[in-house]
Design goal:
The chain contains seven helices and 18 strands. With about 325 residues, it is an alpha+beta fold. Strand 3 and strand 4 form a beta hairpin.
Length: about 325
Amino acid sequence: MNFKKKAAILSGVVAALALANLLTFIFEPGKPKTSSFAWLDPSLLVAADYIEIHRSPGANTNGTPGTPVVLVRRNNRWLLRGSEPQGSELPVKQARVEDLLSALSRKAAYPKRAFSSEARAALTLEEGRSSRILVRGGAGLPLLDLLIGTADALGREVYLRKADQNDIYSGEDLFTVYTESKRESWYDLKFFQTDKAAITADAVQQAEIRFFETSSPEDKAVNELLILRRQRSGWIIPGEEGAEIDSIRAESWLRTVLEAEGEDFGFQTPAVYTKSITLRLGDGSSRTIQAGPEGGDNRGSVVLSGSDLVYIIPEWTVNRLFRERSYFIQ
């Protein structure tokens, strides 16, 4: 073990011992009184339509508060309020929001540890210094304002208190996974996540892959067009019924398209489109994916029909989605 590793371990041990020693002075004497309760009344979950999550200033490199994550519920679906452009709202992983609300509304044992201003300062449970989760409902009605402070000496529990109360409790660390994570961790980047019902591969009757000329933004000439049409249990290329299509490969490609997702959201629609995929469904509707040219960072921009969202995808995803004719021929 080199010197730097030894020094880091010793520093961690010293810090833990120092914290443990400090806590013996600020905690209430005697055995802590344990209460069992939920931070957020489960009956209020139906009213919750706004969540604001503040990362602790200490988690930022400059020690200053960062931009909070703001989640809003529209038509029973949670969205993340974007920082740019102004007023934009991005889709988020619904299960992750529900997991957070479940953790807040789950009844658990919380020993009461302290209540003094000295304890709040020592455990970073002061407003502006702690992580914070605010939940509101209706016309801004406050449902919960929870402050999350430092972890205990073993790192298994955190200290918590409601912003309008002095009592400090400790409990299992269920919340820093939400407060200390990056805002991108909330994004739902699946292309078809906004559909009311998931599109199944069986619903797709025809797929069209186009490659465009890109000499100018106005140039919509198709340089190459491949049409795959479902026929009974397999696939054909119309007009080329003699071509042997690898149906297993075609079905696998179709699932890849339906399950595709970006690696980030973009904020500028591509000036030109170089490729597109149109999926025609059995109910007469269709979905179209259009991709812009890959930039110098080997990434492309993708937009979907009926959506204002712009997805950023890496080059390997571009290559997996936009297949040429030879890929499907046995």
